[in-house]
Task: inverse folding
């Protein structure tokens, strides 16, 4: 873990006048380098915002407020956001984005803000590179602007292949219980640009970062983040179609640790995250803090005899530990599944790095509940548990979900995003009673079962009618399941082939279960209490 000193560029919040761009395309590096504060001079800066989702709109709204000359370019535009842009006086171009629209070329942008959904090889980004136009993501823009309402609040960063949103929610709940005004934001669904403009300000932001957002972040210079603490929860192949390779995906995730000032939290069960910390260029004095389900060493959080312990944030960490909660207490509120406990330990490490007392963490956990579609019990009937983990949108997440149960009828499939599901099938073949394969990329999944579980009873749902997918799957699953089994929706794949989102997929599963059981089940909206 390399160390360096780093001066916070937002410490000087004075107004910078900047200079006009001297080239046909791209602002001068000198002007962009001065834009390190809300109070810098952003007026008249020609900016193109790519995309009009939640992130793109937040960027356009922010830049319009700053007086920049903004153009939004999108392949499609939701009606409500298009109307709001009109109110803001921000022009919108909707077009086929295979080539740079004439309006974009005429705008002659000095800077492009790109929404996370644009692949690195998107034609507009290729065009921008050829024109030497700087490209920022929304996170870099928010970092530069974070001092709008007073001294900039520190940022705690969370990434990983799985568990990001839950860990952000846990950490934010712990920080709030510790008396801090905290904003969970980023990929969790609240744009960071909205959070940093809240008129009351925050004590701390807990920022969920996707690999897409991390991809665009610089490691040094005025736009580089300097997080208070950071964590990469885990790393497994995902979004290969977007990044181009597993190595590029991992490299993007590793950026989360760069310039961290207090605690680089890593997963002791995932050596790749430890190597990320070892390779990171961090601020002098930053500590490496491990978390895991085993007995913790000094500078770790872990479990001893069913007690979650902190051996990192206490003076006598070589000879003692601090109790945070117990596995039994977590089981009582549906938080004892192993991967959830790991997320709790990671969140506790982040909260403890911010001096949240252990008693506040225990209090926070006693009232915490997982979001819907995360190992959520839909119903229990005739000894069969029906569980919705539609949020398991990749093999790594499905692996954790499957590992929590002994005998499973598995609903699996969707958009695989370039990932091979074979290892997952091989690892859990012995716990499977049967499988129901859904989604448009069924053949890859079926082939994995033929290779690794040839004797397993596997059914395929080949209906093109979205409304028939889950009722058919639930009916087949019921024919396979017996008392003591879990029927588990953990698709290991994205949902957009047949559903609007993983939430819709989970909701349709739950509705199909209730329809099949005819209302005679014991319903439970809590998460599964764990193995």
Result:
């Amino acid at each position: 873990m390399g160390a360096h000193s780093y001066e916070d560029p937002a410490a000087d919040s004075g107004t910078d006048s900047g200079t006009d761009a001297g080239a046909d395309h791209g602002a001068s590096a000198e002007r962009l380098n001065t834009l390190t504060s809300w109070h810098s001079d952003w007026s008249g800066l020609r900016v193109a915002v790519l995309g009009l989702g939640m992130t793109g709109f937040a960027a356009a709204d922010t830049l319009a407020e700053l007086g920049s000359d903004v153009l939004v370019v999108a392949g499609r535009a939701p009606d409500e956001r298009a109307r709001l842009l009109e109110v803001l006086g921000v022009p919108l171009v909707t077009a086929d984005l295979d080539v740079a629209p004439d309006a974009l070329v005429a705008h002659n942008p000095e800077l492009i803000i790109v929404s996370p959904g644009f692949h690195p090889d998107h034609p507009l980004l290729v065009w921008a590179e050829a024109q030497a136009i700087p490209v920022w993501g929304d996170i870099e823009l928010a970092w530069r602007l974070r001092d709008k309402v007073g001294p900039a609040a520190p940022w705690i960063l969370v990434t990983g292949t799985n568990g990001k949103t839950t860990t952000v929610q846990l950490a934010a709940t712990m920080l709030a219980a510790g008396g801090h005004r905290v904003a969970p934001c980023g990929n969790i669904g609240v744009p960071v640009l909205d959070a940093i403009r809240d008129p009351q300000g925050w004590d701390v932001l807990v920022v969920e970062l996707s690999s897409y957002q991390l991809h665009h972040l610089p490691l040094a210079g005025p736009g580089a983040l300097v997080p208070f603490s950071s964590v990469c929860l885990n790393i497994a192949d995902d979004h290969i179609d977007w990044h181009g390779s597993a190595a590029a995906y991992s490299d993007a995730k590793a950026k989360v640790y760069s310039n961290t000032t207090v605690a680089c939290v890593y997963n002791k069960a995932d050596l790749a995250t430890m190597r990320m910390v070892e390779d990171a260029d961090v601020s002098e004095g930053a500590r490496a803090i491990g978390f895991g389900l085993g007995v913790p060493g000094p500078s770790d959080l872990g479990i001893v005899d069913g007690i979650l312990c902190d051996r990192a944030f206490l003076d006598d960490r070589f000879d003692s530990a601090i109790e945070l909660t117990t596995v039994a207490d977590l089981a009582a509120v549906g938080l004892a599944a192993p991967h959830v406990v790991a997320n709790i330990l990671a969140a506790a490490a982040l909260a403890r790095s911010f001096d949240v007392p252990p008693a506040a963490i225990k209090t926070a956990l006693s009232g915490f509940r997982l979001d819907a579609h995360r190992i959520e019990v839909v119903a229990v009937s005739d000894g069969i548990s029906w569980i919705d983990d539609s949020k398991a949108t990749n093999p790594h997440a499905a692996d954790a979900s499957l590992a929590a149960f002994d005998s499973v009828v598995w609903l699996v499939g969707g958009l695989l995003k370039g990932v091979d599901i074979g290892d997952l099938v091989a690892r859990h073949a012995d716990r499977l009673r049967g499988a129901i394969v859904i989604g448009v990329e069924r053949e890859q999944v079926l082939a994995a079962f033929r290779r690794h579980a040839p004797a397993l009873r596997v059914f395929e749902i080949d209906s093109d009618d979205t409304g028939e997918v889950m009722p058919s799957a639930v009916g087949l699953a019921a024919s396979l399941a017996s008392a003591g089994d879990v029927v588990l929706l953990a698709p290991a794949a994205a949902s957009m082939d047949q559903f609007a989102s993983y939430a819709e997929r989970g909701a349709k599963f739950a509705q199909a279960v209730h329809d099949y059981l005819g209302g005679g089940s014991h319903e439970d909206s809590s998460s599964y209490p764990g193995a």
Observations:
- Residues 2-138 form a domain with the Rossmann fold fold (CATH 3.40.50.720).
- Residues 4-27, 520-531 have pLDDT under 50 and may be disordered.
- The longest helix spans residues 338-353.
